[in-house]
């Protein structure tokens, strides 16, 4: 285990009726790290994000953020402490413009003077490459822009820890390259990141370390190079018939 981790889950379990979504999941992430979270469909990745962000309560185990137990806190309380997330299916306020969506998240994040919030919203939209969409209603955005807005809204809460749930899913190769660069810049600005990602080029290219879930259990942890060679991962992911490649 890492000393002084930013986030640590200890023996986290989650069941839905008879379904075991998470079993005894213990891992940590250190400040400034990009941690990749991968695993086949239904492995429990999004459930793990729900439990960290407070959308779901774990059935067992605990979660600590900056050494403080947060398991009993509501999602908004965790967000105020610095835990922000995106959703696999973007969830903007669809009748609001792109700019207004980011303003809502900024207002939630802190009580700064309205004028400076507008400047900050413009700055965030430019960081994610969304300026030209600022006055569009979010409902009219194409998928790539909706994914960027999801990222912008999370950034607007001024997170210390950012949980990215498949931000690359469904995007074109050039959009993936763009978002990869944005994520690098977000990390360089001091934000720690955990990313669920099926786009292997992205997760292998960005992550310092990767953890792998399979049937709710953590089956491997290591550098991208180690993970691509890991027998248990190859077996879980691809039924042993192929390689996990960058
Ligand atoms: N609210 C729920 N009620 C019942 N079962 C659930 C619920 N949420 C998740 N599950 C089940 O828990 C398991 C883990 O689901 P989860 O969505 O966390 O997987 P995942 O790794 O994120 O999958 P994917 O890559 O397809 O998004 C699955 O078997 C899923 O059907």
From TrEMBL:
GO terms for molecular function: ATP binding; ATP hydrolysis activity; L-isoleucine transmembrane transporter activity; L-phenylalanine transmembrane transporter activity; L-valine transmembrane transporter activity. The keyword Magnesium does not apply. One of its GO terms (biological process) is D-alanine transmembrane transport. Residues 7-240 form the ABC transporter domain. Keywords: ATP-binding, Nucleotide-binding, Transport. InterPro entries: AAA+_ATPase, ABC_AA/LPS_Transport, ABC_transporter-like_ATP-bd, BCA_ABC_TP_C, P-loop_NTPase. One of its GO terms (cellular component) is plasma membrane. This is ATP-binding cassette domain-containing protein. It comes from Microvirga makkahensis. The lineage of its organism: Bacteria, Pseudomonadati, Pseudomonadota, Alphaproteobacteria, Hyphomicrobiales.
